[in-house]
């Protein structure tokens, strides 16, 4: 089900809205796998950045989404910039049972902001493996504090039980959609102001 490179671009395919989102996993991409295949695989280990295309119904509207799983392994850090440029929204996923993976989210966030040059890019911080509470190394409070610092939402998921897996993807899709609508209004507003200024200039004459 791996996608082609063109899937990474924001497109309006066959007249249907298409959204592009990046899924950053540290160290595993199990959420994406569970969401697409509805099956939990204990030993799933991504070896490269994978792209998936899926049609979903978002608030009564059928939309096509492209999900890019960047794998989160250092071997691919050099090519992440290209993926980040194409992404419209980001799920930054860490394991609540691994403090190191939580620490890595700060580097991902910094890299995204550097590439996108936009602190308000749609972004969710996601703590995975909520079913392993007895092995928790990252407290809810600690994760929420980081999310608050970034002005983003924090959600805990379990790919094994599917708890909140759909939620984080749909929440991000709504953020992306809202951002696209906001950008469209701003763009149309600029066009109207430019058109008005042009008409005023055309009506003016020098005596």
TrEMBL record:
Its main location: membrane. The keyword Oxidoreductase does not apply. Its EC number is 3.6.5.2. It is found in: Cell membrane; Midbody. SMART domains: RAB, RAS, RHO. SUPFAM superfamilies: P-loop containing nucleoside triphosphate hydrolases. It comes from the Eukaryota. It is an enzyme of class 3 (hydrolase). GO terms for biological process: signal transduction. Keywords: Cell membrane, GTP-binding, Hydrolase, Lipoprotein, Membrane, Methylation, Nucleotide-binding, Prenylation. GO terms for cellular component: midbody; plasma membrane. One of its GO terms (molecular function) is G protein activity. Belongs to the small GTPase superfamily. Ras family. NCBIfam families: small_GTP. This is small monomeric GTPase. It comes from Limosa lapponica baueri.
């Amino acid at each position: 089900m791996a996608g082609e490179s063109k899937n990474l671009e924001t497109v309006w395919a066959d007249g249907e809205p298409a959204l592009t989102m990046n899924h950053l996993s540290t160290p595993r991409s199990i959420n994406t796998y569970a969401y697409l295949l509805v099956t939990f695989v204990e030993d799933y280990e991504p070896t490269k950045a994978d792209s998936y295309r899926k049609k979903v119904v978002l608030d009564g509207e059928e939309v096509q989404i492209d999900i890019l799983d960047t794998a989160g392994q250092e071997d691919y850090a050099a090519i992440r910039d290209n993926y980040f440029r194409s992404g419209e929204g980001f799920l930054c996923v860490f394991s609540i049972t691994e403090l190191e993976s939580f620490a890595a989210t700060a580097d991902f966030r910094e890299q995204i902001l550097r590439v996108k040059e936009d602190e308000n890019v749609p972004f969710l911080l996601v703590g995975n493996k909520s079913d392993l509470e007895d092995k928790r190394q990252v407290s809810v409070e600690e994760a929420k504090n980081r999310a608050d610092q970034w002005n983003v939402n924090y959600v805990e998921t379990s790919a094994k039980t599917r708890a909140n897996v759909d939620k984080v993807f749909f929440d991000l899709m709504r953020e992306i959609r809202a951002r696209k609508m906001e950008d469209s209004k701003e763009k149309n507003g600029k066009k109207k102001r430019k058109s008005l200024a042009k008409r005023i200039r055309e009506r003016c004459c020098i005596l």
